[in-house]
Amino acid sequence: MKIVNSLLILSFLFGANAVIGASASTCQIKQISQKIAKSELHSDFIQTKEIKALSRPLISRGKIWLSPSNKLIWQVSSPLKSTMVIGAGEMYQFDKNDLPVEIPPNAIANEISTLFFNLLSGNLESLKSHFTITKQCNEMGWSIKLSPIKNEFSKLLKTIELTGQVHIESILFEESRGDLTKIRLTALKEQAPQVLEKYLEVSRLDKKHSKESRLE
Amino acid sequence: MNNKFGLLAWCVGMALLVALASSLFRNGVNIESNILKLLPSSQQDPFSEQAFEQFSQQSMQRLVFLVANKSRVKAKKSAEQLVEKIKSLDDIQSASFGMSSSEQKVQGLFSYLYRHRLVSKNDEKLLNEKKFDDFSDRVIQQLYSPLSGSLAELIPKDPFLLSYRFTSSISNSERNLRLDEGFLIAKVNDVYYVLVTATLKRSAFSPEVQQKVLSAIGEVESDWHNASVGTKLLRTGAVFFASHAQETARNEVSTIGVGSLILVIALVSLAFLSIKPLLLVTTTIFVGVCSGFVTVHYLFGSVHLLTIVFGASLIGVAVDYSFHYFSVEQGSETRSRLSKVFPAITLGLISSVIGYLSLLTTPFPGLQQMATFCISGLVAAYLTVVLLLPSIPLKSRIQGHVLLVCDKIINFAQSGVTKRIWLMTLLIPAVALVTFYSSPQESSDIRQFQNSSVELTQQQQAIQSILLTPAANQFYLVKGKTLEEMLESLENAVPALDRLVESGVIEGYQSISQWLPSLRRQQQVYQLYQRLYQSDALINLANTGIIEEKDIDKFRRDFAETKSQIISSENWLSSPLGKSLSYLWLGDINQQYAAIISIEGINQLEKLEDIDANVVFVDKVSRISELFQIYETRASWLLLVALVLIFTLLSFRYPVVKALLIISSPVIAIASALLGLFLFNIPLSLFNTLALFLVIGIGIDYGLFFAESREASANTLLAVVLSAMTTLFSFGLLALSETPAIHAFGVTMLFGIGTSLVLSPVIGSLVIKLGKHT
């Protein structure tokens, strides 16, 4: 795996990818990754969750922002305001009053938030060790399907599907027990959302806070 | 008493000893190595003593490992291998990494069944402040987040996810540890540590158990090493410390025993160059050591390893009497030989026994054993000399050149300088007094008996820096006349404990009360949740589509139905978490219910005290230290009493001036021993105070031997030199011990006996001169 990776890097460095046919090069995971990663992501979203145990689907709306400091902010505005800040290996949550919510330490939750972060930031290469990735390209755009290799994800997830033209436009999670989560990114924006910036600050402060209130 | 009668008496005694020893070996010899067995049990408080016994028994059977690897997958894999390996041992009760998925399910079911009886502190506050929205908000947030996992399935039964809320509030309090696929994992500095715990079926002090556990772990480690998986293992547990202690003690016994024996043989060969004295001296030693061992085993039911270490020094003392016997001038008949040394060695025995008796007066079983061992051994050695030796004809000659050297020393001692030397040595006590009052005092404690390996201690500290591990010797003992009263006592202690954590006195604590509330509290919690179900919180859930509005009444009815779900102690104890925390449950002791609150990470020990009449702080270490302190003071006074007592005895036999001269030798020896301790930077403790008794008891012998011989002869000096050298050597070897108590004892003896030896010709010739004048 490591050798393959470094070969890929080598071929990239020496421009060897030009040798590969032009038609193939338009539908490479690396290229898609680059497309996703190229610009700062800031968008509205609509999420629909179909949960087997519940009779009605749960629909929520909010904003998503991938900050230049490499933090993903996921803010639900309806039906109830709540905000998540996901960074490399860390996650913070804030309630409707923007007060930090204590998240029980859980390795799986950490993995999932990291997965989510990697998906939205276009860091698909890093997912290769956990998922088999297949892709499809057509005139409408691209789509990528990830299925977990037997590991901690496979107990939870069946597949993840990403589609888009340049940016990611929709994400579909199919959970192992049959629940479906569809996220559609709408209204991509160019400017950094002022309103979300403060959470980056708060999450830094929260590091101290969570240490103090460790014991319940 | 004639020779034949003596021989007969000795043979009868030997037959008895052999019979006792052989029955002992048939029934199995008990060698104890638990240091707690050296310590006194508290007569005043048998309840807390039994609680401590039970708690320490359980905590001593626990093994804790951290399996470390830079790769999480490899760390988990290695942890599995370790668990599999130790589980295969017969002596292992249980071994696990975190919680298996089936255990997690059972525990999940427990928190689900009793969700309306359990509440976290934070939630209790929210409910009391009527902040019911927090409960619905959290559910909404959880379910609307992109991946909510299996929690949604709980909604139809547990709309507020109370079981999840409670469990996660508990796991939030664990430092560093995360549950990951049933593994408890900590990540520190990019290394993953998987927690593995195991419990022994039998005592951690059984050498057989130690050997099996250690070799199994060794095999796993070498497998990892061979496969270069890069896994490292941190371990802690009584079994490792005990095994190390036993190994060191065994090595020390052989060093001291073999070392002393070799010296005795060398000295005897050098002085007599004959086989018979050699055989007789070794017989004396053998009889002495055997008798010591057998007596202790019969009186105490077992012999502690440290007693044997200490007892090995007996070799050097037990030979003294035979040395005196052999050193009498040539040509003496065996009978008159004995009569010449009889008064001296009898007085010598009495003074040594007085010395050892001081150890018997302490309430420490360990010291009592050591004293019994030595007294019994000395008496047996003495009897062998008095009864056996006269009946064996002896023609051996003392080597001429050895006597010549001794003669020269005696001549020097008899010259005019001796008085001046003696007067000068009187300065030593004065210097010692000043030094000692100006140097700081340190208290001795239980650790004086412990010879911990540096590596094991480091591993233990490494584990403690990653996990919060409960202190083994300090805890709160909680009691109540009934189970309910005890559980309420546990709950009453919580605010005080939280204050201790908040103020940083301790890092944390572990109590069963959060999982097993009293019935009264369970009732209160139920009523708190009743308010939640009656509030708008369910409506909030219906408004966001998580539940149906028509189901609200059904949820309220469901809640009412759980009124019969009450947590009993049996429910809790049989749950997986209850089992893993079973060491906190003592149950029924003397018609009282008892439990333990373990303390993690004590930062300020001095601030811990009883919380109330039912929640008492137990600290074995400081209680023992206090006892040590008390006995040290008492021992210092007894030392004076012993000196006075011996002086009185001497005054009966000798004129006062002569008695004063004889007693001056141990006084100077004590002073120089104290200076020696100061020089080696060893704090004065109970153990070296007790050693001073032996400095008196043994050191006085040398003066006595001179006083009893009519003139300062080379033969007397030879006897003194021989016995002092062997004593010096045996105790000197004790100074090499890794056990601080024994080390301190050895150093004290080294200086004390050394001084007595040097002083003996000086004081001896002064004593003899005095005898001539009167």
TrEMBL record, chain A:
Q: Does the keyword Lipoprotein apply?
A: yes
GO-annotated biological processes: protein transport
The transmembrane residues are: none
User: What keywords is this UniProt entry annotated with?
Assistant: Lipoprotein, Protein transport, Signal, Transport
Q: Which domain of life is it from?
A: Bacteria
- Keyword Disulfide bond among UniProt keywords: no
What's one Pfam family here?
LolA
Gene3D superfamilies the record matches: Lipoprotein localisation LolA/LolB/LppX
This chain belongs to the protein called: Outer membrane lipoprotein carrier protein LolA
What organism is listed for this UniProt entry? Aliikangiella coralliicola
Kindly list the organism's lineage: Bacteria, Pseudomonadati, Pseudomonadota, Gammaproteobacteria, Oceanospirillales
From TrEMBL, chain B:
Is Methyltransferase one of the keywords? no
Specify whether Transmembrane helix is a keyword of the entry: yes
Keywords from the UniProt entry: Membrane, Transmembrane, Transmembrane helix
**Which InterPro entries does the UniProt entry name for this protein?**
Mycobact_MmpL
One GO CC term, this protein: plasma membrane
Q: Which domain of life is it from?
A: Bacteria
Q: Which residue ranges run through the membrane?
A: 253-273, 278-300, 306-326, 338-358, 370-389, 421-439, 635-652, 659-680, 686-705, 717-736, 742-768
Question: Matching Gene3D superfamilies, A to Z?
Answer: Multidrug efflux transporter AcrB transmembrane domain (1.20.1640.10)
Per its record, how is this protein called by name?
MMPL family transporter
Q: Which organism is it from?
A: Aliikangiella coralliicola
